[in-house]
Amino acid sequence: MSATENRPQQQPYAIAGGVSMRDLLASCAAAEAVSTPPRLPDPGTATAAAAERPKAA
Questions:
Q1: C-alpha count within 13 angstroms, C-beta hemisphere, residue 10
Q2: pLDDT tops 90 at residue 1
Q3: Could you tell me which residues come within 8 angstroms of residue 24 by beta carbon, excluding any fewer than 6 positions away?
Q4: Confidence (pTM)
């Protein structure tokens, strides 16, 4: 009997036990939403919105 025969078989990948695919995809979507910075405002929209505001009294 050689030394390699006594070693337990290693799995080539990790098994996520007890996690449904729905939960996994939801957690990935949440992580992406949290880690993505907010978009910059559109320059055309920002100047139009500032012009539409009433002047302070």
A1: 4
A2: no
A3: 16
A4: 0.40
